[in-house]
Amino acid sequence: MAASLRALARRLLGVERTPTYYLPWLTVNGLECALILNNVEVRFEPGKNEGPFPATVVQHDADGTVVGTSEVSVIDTEAAVEVPMAPTASGYGFVTVSMEHLRSDLYVTVSDGGSYTATHGRFEFVETYPLRVRILFAVLGRLLAPFGRTVPAFVRDQYAYSGRDGRSHLLLLNLSNVTNRIRVVAHWDGPPGAARLVAVPPRGARLLDVGTLVPAAEVLTPLALRLEGNAWFNLYLVGAGPRDLAGLLSLMHVK
Amino acid sequence: MSSNLSALLSATFYEAGDEHRVELVHQQDRKARRQLASLDLAVYDPEGKHLVAVPMDTHQEILDLGALVGSVAGALPRVMVLLDARYDERIFPYRPHHYGFLHHRGSTAPALYYAVNAVLGGVPDRIGATGLTTLETYIFLRRAFAERYSVLLGNPARFSTAEAQVTAYYATGRASQVVALPPKTHVEMELAAEHAGEHLQRVEIKALFRLASYVVGRRADSGELVLFDHLFSYHR
Q: Domains plus CATH for chain A?
């Protein structure tokens, strides 16, 4: 019921959904980030396993601007192509990969030169809103922002953890072409706790320190987070160690 | 509560000193909170010896594995933790206990979030497990890092010994290892980072039965975990 109402609302508003494979990228504090493109998972599927497999990679910066575009070809199902992400001043964002020919999960790696962490991307979609809807969201967003609120068109729930040694951040990805005001509310052992309203530029991203949502504690604190955004978004969990963003970081997709 | 319950057997590995948490229910399953029908947690040593069955309160949202199994793990390098859940598919839009959080106390490495291995059951058409899940692969960065790589394999079966072939691929060469895992046993199989002068590029696991499997990367000097990830199935 909710899904069909949502679909109806999309049709009435003229929202376009474009299937898109996306991954996060991180180069903060000199970290190196690279994608691993491959098509190994169709290795045993006749009709799908004959290369080459071309793909277009588009890297969006935190402010949504396109940092770089590259054309890549994966020669066959045993090949893997590493695509380095261009470092920027912000040091994070998301990258899209065209999947007309690739049917495998793609990896994103983060390295400090000595070791690396990895996760994979998600094949979902991005949404494009017509001008009138963008104007509507801009007006509503400015009206609600002083109260720390947003239009809760999309809601996600996610557990995250905060501790002295094991830290977490949220990498919020705006998968739409409108400024996305995302409200993050944290709960831990009781009523709703701290809330943040984060404005994410179209096709942009923002890092939010989970530790700022909970009083500092020595022990690891599990937090139940609720995220509400006025437009389509997703997030990756960013794991950090005691050096926080100054050290190596890990990434993890969510459902 | 439905009389037609679904089942999910999940597996993970606990190492002493780890801060290790597992979601018992996914937070998005709002109606499912505190409605998990049952959950049995059992712990096994590498030889398959049943160490303990922990009575579970299904009202919990997050399990602290260190608190639950840390004392029975004792001096063992690692124990396998099996989570055997029964749940109503209509209540859970996805499936129970999906994500884990892992960080060794005092480690300088980053905290790792990971997806807990769904070994048997779950909701196959929703978790993309419609293909063969006993033939899996994982790709590594090709440059050399000061890391040791391995796969963690566990056999959750009650009666059957499972044989697994683990093949590490290099630019032109490969190296295979075969292991037979009696019921409830588990092992960490090292993957040579270099073979005949070539760096590790990929690993593949072939088994007749579904095994608990994770790819592991550890810093070569300290052994700190930097990679704890599931593999990917062929035949998507």
A: 2-125 (2.60.290), 131-253 (2.60.290.11)
Q: How many CB atoms lie within 10 A of CB B27?
A: 23
Interchain proximity B108–A241, CB inside 8 Å: yes
Instruction: Find the residue in A nearest to B234 (Cα).
Output: A41
Q: How many beta-carbon contacts under 8 Å exist across A and B?
A: 140
Q: Alpha carbon B24 to chain centroid distance?
A: 15
Tokens for B217?
A: 């990367």
pTM of structure? 0.94
Query: Distance between CA atoms of A255 and B99, rounded to whole angstroms?
Result: 10
* Identity at A131, one-letter amino acid code: L
Helix (H, G, I), strand (E, B) or coil at A233: strand
Phi-psi bin for A80: left (phi > 0), alpha (psi -120 to 50), beta? beta
Partner B contacted by A114 (CB < 8 A): yes
Give the ipTM of the model, two decimals please: 0.94
Closest residue in chain A to residue B24, using alpha carbons only:
A159
Domain boundaries defined on chain B: 5-120, 134-235
Q: Are A161 and B101 a contacting pair at CB < 8 A?
A: yes
Pair of tokens at residue A161: 């953890």
pLDDT exceeding 70 applies to what percent of chain A? 98
Contact state of A115 with B147 under an 8 Å Cβ cutoff: yes
Radius of gyration of chain A (CA): 19
A181 touches chain B (CB under 8 A): no
Find all residues with CB under 8 Å of A47, minimum gap 6, and list them: none
The bridge status of strand A92-97 relative to strand A16-26 is antiparallel
Alpha helix (H) residue ranges in A119-239: 131-144
Residue B55, H or E segment:
strand B50-55
Q: Which residue of A has its CA nearest to B225?
A: A117
Residues A175/A233, Cβ–Cβ less than 8 Å: yes
SS3 A9: helix
**Arithmetic mean of pLDDT, B62-88:** 90
Taking CB atoms and an 8 Å cutoff, what residues of chain B touch A109? 141
B121: left (phi over 0), alpha (psi -120 to 50) or beta: left
Distance CA A136, CA A156 (A): 22
Is the four-CA dihedral A209, A21, A57, B202 of positive or negative sign? Answer: positive
Fold designation for B5-120: Immunoglobulin-like (2.60.40)
Cβ neighbours, 10 Å, residue A110: 26
pLDDT of residue B32: 54
**The CATH number of the domain covering residues in B134-235:** 2.60.290.11
The pLDDT tens digits for A226-253 are 999 999 999 999 999 999 999 999 999 9
pLDDT tens string A167-218 = 999 999 999 999 999 999 998 766 667 899 999 999 999 999 999 998 877 7
